[in-house]
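Lecture 7 notes: from sequence to structure.

We start with a single chain of 394 residues. Read the sequence below before looking at the structure.
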Amino acid sequence: MSGLQAIRYTRGKLEVLDQLRLPHEHHYDEVSTSEEAFDCIRSMRVRGAPAIAIVAALAHAVELYNGGCKASTPEEIISYIDSRLDYLKQSRPTAVDLTNAITHLKSVVRAQDVAALDQAAAKPAIVEAFIAAAEEIFRKDTETNLLMGEYGSKWLLENAPTKSASGQVSVLTHCNTGSLATSGHGTALGIVRTLHNAGHLHHAFCTETRPYNQGSRLTAFELVYEHIPSTLITDSMAGALFATKKSTENIAAVIVGADRVVRNGDTANKIGTYALAVLARYHGVKFMVAAPTTSIDLHTTTGAGVKIEERKPEELTQITGAVVGADGKVDITKTARVATAHQEIGVWNPAFDVTPAELIDAIVTEKGVVVKNESGNFDFRTIMPERWASVVGQ
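Now the structure, written as C-alpha cells:
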C-alpha cells in the first residue's frame, strides 16, 4: 500500500495534509475542532469523498476527547453531537460518504444503553462510543479500498477490450482518487495501483482535471511517487488519446471514483467525468466507477435528484502555484497567484456532473463488481441487502 498519508491520527490528535500545497510542499494542519474541519473541507485542503467523511468524523472525535462538549445529561450530549455533525454536513453537500458517516455516528450514540448509569458515567460512555465509531470508519476505509482494488483489477482483466501480448492494459483516470483522497491505497487509483503491483498495468494516463487541477497536482504526484508509468494530459485531449493511442497503448478503460452513486447507478463525480464516459462509449473503452458502498445513495432514485455544488468564479479565472525561476527550477519558497482569464467574464463553475448509468459498464465496490442485469439496469440489492430492504423495501 502507498506510503502517502493524507490523514494522520492518534486518539486526541488529528493532522490533515494540506493538499493545496502539493505537489511541491508537504504540510500537515492540526485539526482539533469542527470549525477547523469545516474550513479544511470547504477550502479543499482535504478532498475526496472518503477522506472528507473521515476528517469530519475524526475532528469531532478529537473535539469530544479534548472536552469540547460541556453538556451533562445524555439528551444534551446527543443534541450537542447532532448539532456539530449537522454543521459539518454542510461543508461539501454532494459527497454522500459524509452524509452516511453522520447518519451512522448519530445512530451509534443513540444505541448506547445509559439508562442504568448516572450522569457522570453516561457522558464518557457516549463519548467513547462516538470516538470508537469514528476510528472504525478510518480503519475500515483502507480495508475497503484494498478489496476494491482486487475486484476492479480482476474484472477489467476479464473484460478488457484490448490487451498487450503479455496481457497488460492501460487506463485513463480523472481527478484524484488515491491515497490523498482516502485513508490509503485509493478507490479508482487503488485499482490502478493493484494492476501495477501485479504487473498487469502497461501505462496510466491522468487528466489534469480543471479547474482545480487535482489530476495534475495530486494524481500525477502520486503516480510519480509510486514509480507507476504514467502520462499527464489535459481534459480536452481524452478523445484524441482514444482515437490515436487506444490500440498501440492498449487503453482498456476509464476508471473514476464517485462522490455519489444513486439507486439507478447514475453517478455524480468530478466535473468532466460525464464527457469522458461519452468518449469512452464512442471509442469502445470500458467505463468503470470505483465506489465503496458508503458512496451509494439508495434514497435518491436518479441523478436528477443530486444537488450539484457550485464553487466560486476565482477557481476558474485565477491560479496559485510555486514560482519557476529563470533557471527553470521550481522555488517552493515562493508562490504567486495569477489571473488566467479576464476577471469580468461571467463564470459557471459546477464542481460535479452526473454520468448516466447507461454509459457505465461496471461499478466496483468492496462487496464486488456490480454490472447491469438482463434488463440493462444496475441492481444493488445483492451487495447491500439490508440497506436496500430498509430504504427501498423490496
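The radius of gyration is 21 Å. Keep this in mind for problem set 3.
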